[in-house]
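Page 37, continued from 36.
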């Protein structure tokens, strides 16, 4: 199908249609988000000094990059210090505004761009449940949660339309970035031209209505639900939200306002069908307004009697052998782990928030972050764990130069001058005082322990 034929149906609802069509046929500028869970913003920017980047006006942690090199090959990406993410894709979490200590659901979580952004907004505190139906896509979700150093996440595998049956009135905030006909991805890939069709839109709308109803039922009174899609079709956007409002009188639409970012009002008329005027509170992101992919957002709250959630009291679990070995090896105070639970999960020592550890309502596929593995009373700490907790290490650390870091992250061994302060065994490799990775020192060389799937291309 030709691009003009696909999008011609939207001419009645886009006033400047020629600008809309011109923008859709331009490639997207690369963009990314700094991951402040692992390092401070300015520390990551120092590692990006070789790139020509520009900050987003509406989001402190977001940037665009106009170079031709793939951002996914940069060392900061492999280290989890940045996440390559389209600009409009960052908007739903900004509007949802999850807070530390809350209980939050990402209903359709894979591949994890918004899950990891939610955790960042929550400052790795509280409980974040990431649900994904597709077993094939869960692997990527797990990879990205680990790469970004999430400590407050639980990954589950449920039909999204059934979430309310097991967790009714449970969440403070919910994101439903719904599966859709994906018309908005046209600037990234022309694949949508080959599978688009009105029947597909109708099928998606039916799925989306099931998701938004289940999500709303799982929302606590006073909570916030953010429904979003990357499609332009009103059937999948205003039509789905209108269905929810008709079904639940307690559902209330809230305005969407993002300073320094242009959005347009939701529509109230489409192909002879009229929606409630409240639907104008929804937000449409069009490609030519901010040079992004198209997006749709609706912010919804649930009226009712708010019940205060009982806070967790004290530490729930602390199997500290691995943490004690880590602290002793690298001279780190064990007090740093006081607010976390340390526990065994499928023969692996893990660290997470107490809320994550105590979550038992649904079978989980992953909880928190790996601490490391113990070999003959010696701990081999996990690279991502080291990036989070190795910052104040006082011993058995080795500061490398930039060329050495690239070599090490590629999986190669680096030679070390005679060191009297570093003991044989596992060592934290630092760069600009930031813990980066783990290696093993044999008295002459430092062998990289970076896993193959996390190595930086030469």
């Amino acid at each position: 199908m030709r691009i003009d034929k696909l999008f011609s149906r939207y001419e009645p609802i886009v006033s400047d249609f020629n600008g809309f069509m011109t923008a859709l046929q331009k490639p997207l500028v690369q963009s990314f988000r700094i991951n402040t869970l692992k390092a401070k913003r300015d520390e990551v920017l120092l590692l990006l000094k070789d790139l020509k980047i520009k900050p987003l006006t509406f989001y402190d942690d977001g940037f665009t990059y106009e170079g031709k090199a793939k951002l996914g090959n940069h060392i900061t990406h492999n280290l989890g210090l940045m996440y390559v993410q389209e600009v409009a894709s960052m908007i739903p979490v900004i509007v949802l505004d999850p807070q530390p200590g809350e209980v939050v659901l990402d209903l359709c979580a894979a591949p994890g761009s918004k899950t990891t952004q939610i955790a960042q907004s929550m400052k790795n505190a509280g409980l974040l449940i990431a649900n994904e139906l597709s077993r094939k896509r869960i692997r990527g979700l797990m990879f990205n949660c680990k790469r970004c150093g999430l400590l407050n996440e639980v990954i589950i595998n449920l039909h999204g339309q059934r979430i309310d049956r097991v967790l009714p009135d449970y969440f403070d905030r919910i994101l439903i970035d719904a599966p859709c006909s994906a018309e908005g991805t046209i600037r990234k890939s022309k694949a949508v031209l080959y599978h688009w069709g009105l029947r597909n839109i109708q099928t998606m709308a039916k799925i989306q209505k099931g998701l938004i109803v289940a999500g709303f039922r799982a929302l606590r009174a006073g909570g916030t639900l953010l429904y979003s899609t990357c499609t332009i079709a009103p059937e999948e956007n205003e039509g789905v939200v209108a269905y929810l409002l008709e079904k639940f009188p307690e559902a209330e639409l809230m305005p969407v306002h993002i300073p320094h970012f242009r959005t347009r009002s939701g529509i109230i008329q489409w192909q002879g069908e009229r929606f409630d005027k409240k639907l104008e509170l929804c937000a449409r992101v069009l490609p030519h307004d901010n040079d992004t992919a198209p997006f749709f957002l609706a912010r919804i709250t649930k009226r009712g009697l708010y019940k205060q959630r009982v806070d967790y009291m004290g530490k729930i679990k602390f199997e500290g052998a691995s943490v004690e070995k880590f602290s002793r090896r690298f001279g780190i105070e064990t007090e740093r782990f006081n607010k976390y639970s340390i526990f065994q999960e499928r023969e692996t020592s893990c660290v997470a928030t107490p809320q994550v550890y105590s979550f038992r309502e649904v079978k989980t596929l992953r909880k928190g972050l790996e601490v490391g593995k113990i070999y003959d009373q010696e701990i081999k700490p996990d690279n991502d764990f080291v990036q989070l907790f190795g910052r104040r290490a006082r011993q058995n650390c080795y500061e490398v130069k930039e060329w050495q870091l690239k070599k090490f992250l590629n999986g190669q061994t680096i030679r070390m001058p005679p060191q009297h302060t570093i003991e044989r065994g596992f060592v934290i490799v630092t760069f600009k005082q930031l813990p980066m990775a783990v290696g093993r020192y044999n008295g002459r060389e430092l062998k990289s322990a970076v896993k193959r799937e996390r190595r930086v291309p030469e």
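DSSP finds 16 helices and 25 strands in the chain. Flag for discussion at group meeting. Residues 240 and 275 are 11 Å apart (CA to CA).
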